[in-house]
Amino acid sequence: MNSDTLASPHEPDYVVLESGKTRLKDLYTKEDWMAIWMGFLLLIVGLLIFLPNPPANLKEDLAKYNAVLKEEAAKAPFKTIEWHNASSAKKGIRATNQDFAKTIAQFLAAPSDWKDNPLDALYRSKASADAMNAAAKPAFDKAKEAEGIAQELAKAAQAAAAAAGFKDTALNEAADKEIKAWQEAKGKTSKAKAKASVKSFNRVPYLIGLCILLGAFFGLGKAIMGQSFWKFFVGFFVVFFIAVLAYMAETQALMKYWGFGFPLWAIIFGLLISNTIGTPKWVQPAVATEFFIKTGLVLLGAEILFNKILAIGKPGIFVAWICTPITLILTYWVGQKIIKMPSKTLNITISADMSVCGVSAAIATAAACKAKKEELTLAIGLSMVFTAICMVGQPAIAKLLGLPEILAGAWMGSTIDSTGAVAAAGAFYGEKALYVAATIKMIQNVLIGVTAFGVAVYWCARVECIEGQTVSWWEIWYRFPKFVVGFIIASIVFSILDQNIGKDMSAIMIDHGVLRGFTRIAREWFFALAFTSIGLETNFKEFKPYFKGGKPITLYVFGQSFQLVLTLIVAYIMFYIVFPEITAAI
């Protein structure tokens, strides 16, 4: 990474346009394009691994469970016990439950949860696992007993409703209430069972193997671009080790509760090294922030599926695509006109980070406006802190205000920056809140490419324009982050694939196969490596000019506060006034 800007220094147009040969060479010497090819390679590998290997009796089981669901839905005005049993069995059909998928997951797994001893994240003996299971068994037995009682009450209530031909409204409501209570008890049993069925493990050999594999993978990319494979490979071990430590910090019980994830710790650990002993010269070739993050963002594109965007309907699209650009534009304007931010690139990077979707948008925007690496690091750091605050605070505020699950989910999905934090906050509030929050965040993620393109155009046309000189589309193309093209193509291809194989098959083979079983895990590792690299190449002294007068924090607080209020208002209007029928069907 250049010491002054996120991207390489600007090259004259004649270099870009000199010949077809020069442009062709860019396809394998430029980092953006290499990130696209490497991301595509992983997606293809994932498809080749999972699609030819569906779970046994997949079509027969799906047909059986779908028939039960259809029959039960027509029989009663509420979801019956049989409906829930069939639904649970259907959800249990996942490509990731197969042996080969479990092996892949074991190889790619991050350090485990721990409380007092950090080594528990890497190694757990059989004796320790047995002790944990024994300690958790009474709670599991109690939860199981409570579930059994709840199930009997649900059966009795449903039988009473059935005896009346499901025509007695009071009996139907009573049955529905008891069945929901049973489902809640079943969920508690599932959590208790997980705590009472832990297994022994030794992650160290797998982490060493993963380090070698990722080092070779990215090292090969560096070699194709004309850089040294071995210099990258040797230094990569240090970057990977710090990334592992960041994961371990995230999985510590208290840190996990407060939402301090691996991105924040990776930056902190990297900063501690770079600002004390300094990042060793032999490690620096492996400090490849952009290469890691761009490859990860290409993989992220495959997770943006059009059918999931459309599933939540128009209200979700309105919430994400109205509130986000309004907040982005207003925050940038306030930063320039009122707060008087000295750096326009820092201003727009913080605005995009806070309003769109956090780190991913910050990376794309910083590349589009050629922001300095210190500015990107500062924006990401602010995002991590406020993400943790919002992840814990917003569900609590929603509870205090008595917000319905759908409204709370829409509010959290559009305002919490990190996708993982959105899921955690939504899950804390309820199942519907989780669904709505995760879907709206996915809709919002689509704006990564739109934002990058818009910033590239605006910077060429207004910010860095020269009087009397027309804006060149080649200049815009040069400035536009090419990895966003990979992000968009991956989204389109996987959306088409998702539509063609059907909703059920896609959920089993794509979502709970290629994505959750392979590329999403890899993407999170790439992000951990990128955040580590950000810390390793950043010096605290470089931050001093940007903190003058507390302007970055003031800008972030203003933008986040405005977005929280605007999103809540728009979400209520869209979900409960304009499109109440869609809300009722969720």
**DSSP summary, beta strand count:** 2
* Biggest beta sheet attributes: 2 strands, antiparallel
Beta content comes to under 5%
Strand order, sheet with most strands = 1-2
Count of domains: 2
Helix content: over 70%
Shape: globular
- What distance separates the N and C termini? 46 Å
Structural class: mainly alpha
Radius of gyration: 25 Å
SSE order in H/E notation?
HHHHHHEHHEHHHHHHHHHHHHHHHHHHH
Question: What's the tally of helices?
Answer: 27
Oligomer: single chain
> Any low-confidence stretches, pLDDT <50, length ≥5?
1-22
Can you offer a commentary on this structure?
The protein has 27 helices and 2 strands. It has helices at 13-17, 20-29, 31-50, 58-75, 81-91, 99-108, 126-163, 169-195, 204-224, 229-251, 253-258, 262-274, 289-301, 306-311, 313-337, 344-357, 359-369, 373-401, 405-415, 419-429, 431-445, 447-463, 473-479, 483-501, 503-536, 551-578, 580-585; strands at 123-124, 201-202. Strands 1-2 form a two-stranded antiparallel ribbon. Helix 3 packs across helix 13 (289-301) and helix 17 packs parallel to helix 22. The longest helix has 38 residues, at 126-163.
